[in-house]
Amino acid sequence: MYIAFEGADGTGKTSMAMALVEQLNSQGRNAKFVRAPGSTSFGNYLRANIHHRDDVKVYQFLANHVEIVEEVVKPHLEQGGIVVQDRTFISSIVYLGYCGTLDANDLAMYYRKAISKKPDVLFVLDCDTETCLSRLIDLDKDMDDPDVDLMSNILAAYRIEGRVQSGKIIDSSAPFEKVLETCLTYC
Fold first, then answer.
1. Assigned CATH topology for domain 2-184
2. Secondary structure class of 146 (helix, strand, coil)
3. Are 80 and 143 in contact (CB under 8 A)?
4. Pairing of strands 168-171, 31-35
5. For 145-160, how does the pLDDT look when each residue is reduced to its tens digit (9 = 90+)?
6. Domain-by-domain residue ranges, the chain?
7. Which of 24, 35, 53, 68 is in Cβ range 3.0-4.6 Å of 31 for a Cys bridge?
8. With a cut of 50, which residues of the chain have pLDDT below it?
């Protein structure tokens, strides 16, 4: 089973993905955590060297998404494991398309053609703008002057793309254990 978490920064996707992996492994289910960008040499390089232009970022992220699916996700699934991924190509559609300088529909078409394996279960974590921003400030994510309008737009874009992708949109402002319990019902 291939499970992915999406959502704006501050919705709790990384924490929830890692907790789900831990819970599944405690059940003996061979779950693996995967992060995009990351989880490969190129992905780790990319995390530290993301280009400033959207038209370059799109190719960097696309290469990493394809690499993750082909070199990490598929092999683990073929061995009977479960992959839980923090971010997929949907983040690129949201950040570079809906909230960036590129056309979201063109990006969606391009990514959908290039990525050979889509998640079996997609969780889109959602919460209100203030909660996301306060979590980012608490995590010291360089939020000296938080952009409330941008965060609102990002959250709205994830809701739209989550529905387009038939994702399970989950209110992540609920208690952590309740969100995890909800996620587990789909696994």
1. Rossmann fold (3.40.50)
2. coil
3. no
4. unpaired
5. 668 899 999 999 999 9
6. 2-184
7. 24
8. none
